[in-house]
Every structure is written in C-alpha cells, then in structure tokens.
Amino acid sequence: MLKQLALVAAAAGAAVVAVRRRSAGAGPREADLWHEATNGPQAVSRPTAR
After folding, report:
1. What's the Cα-to-Cα distance from 42 to each of 3, 25, 32, 37, 46, rounded to whole Å?
2. What is the dihedral of CA 19, 29, 32, 42, to 10 degrees?
3. Which side of the chain, N or C, has fewer Cβ within a 10 Å radius?
4. CA neighbor of 37 nearest in space, from 45, 49, 26, 25
5. How far apart are CA 43 and CA 40, in angstroms?
C-alpha cells in the first residue's frame, strides 16, 4: 500500500514538473505574439486604462 502511494506521488510530481517546463517556455513567445497583435496599422483593439 505504501509503495503504491509513493509511486502515485512520484508520478504526480513528474506531471507537475512537465507542465511547469512547458508553461515556462511559452512566456517569451506569447509576449512577442501579443506585441505583434497589438501594435501596427492592422492591430487589434486594446482596452484603455481610464
């Protein structure tokens, strides 16, 4: 029973690490896409701070 619990905990930890790694790599690319989409003559509208 304890061995199974340890195995499940290790698998969950590995899944969390994989998700964090994948999310961390998307940051700069998303920022570049956002900059491209919100600047220039064909930019999408942006909400303004009032």
Report:
1. 58, 27, 16, 8, 12
2. -90
3. C
4. 45
5. 5
Q: Give the model's pLDDT for residue 36.
A: 78
Beta carbons within 8 Å of 37's beta carbon, 6+ residues apart? 43, 44
3-state secondary structure of 29: helix
Which pLDDT belongs to residue 23? Answer: 61
pLDDT in tens for each of the 50 residues of the chain?
A: 888 888 889 888 888 887 776 666 666 666 777 777 778 777 776 666 66
**What pLDDT was estimated at residue 15?**
85
